[in-house]
Write a structure and sequence with these properties.
Blueprint (H helix, E strand, L loop, with lengths): L21 H12 L20 E5 L11 E6 H20 L2
Antiparallel strand pairs: 1-2
């Protein structure tokens, strides 16, 4: 998956990171949706339609392990690819002794 080189200003969800109950996840989805029919993935910028699996997504430039806050929501696949290719190597580099 190729990440976009230029990001449009995504809707920033300022929710604290909690594992969340169903109601909290629904509230996050609605907050990220804003006035659109479906919220956009903050990584690929495509809509997250009904029935699609999604994850809370942290700041793309600052992973949760390094203090990143919830930034929006992302397709599960987009978020996992981002974690494997960007976040995990960055965390490993920063925490190297």
């Amino acid at each position: 998956m190729k990440l976009p080189t230029q990001r449009t200003a995504p809707f920033h969800c300022s929710s604290p990171d909690k594992s969340g109950t169903s109601k909290q996840r629904e509230a996050l989805y609605d907050q990220c949706r804003g006035d659109k029919e479906f919220p956009d993935c903050n990584l690929c910028l495509l809509p997250i339609g009904p029935g699609r699996e999604w994850h809370k997504s942290h700041n793309p430039y600052l992973p949760k392990a390094l203090g990143g806050m919830v930034y929006g929501i992302a397709h599960d696949r987009c978020n996992l690819i981002h974690a494997w290719t960007i976040d995990i190597p960055l965390i490993a580099k920063v925490t190297r002794a």
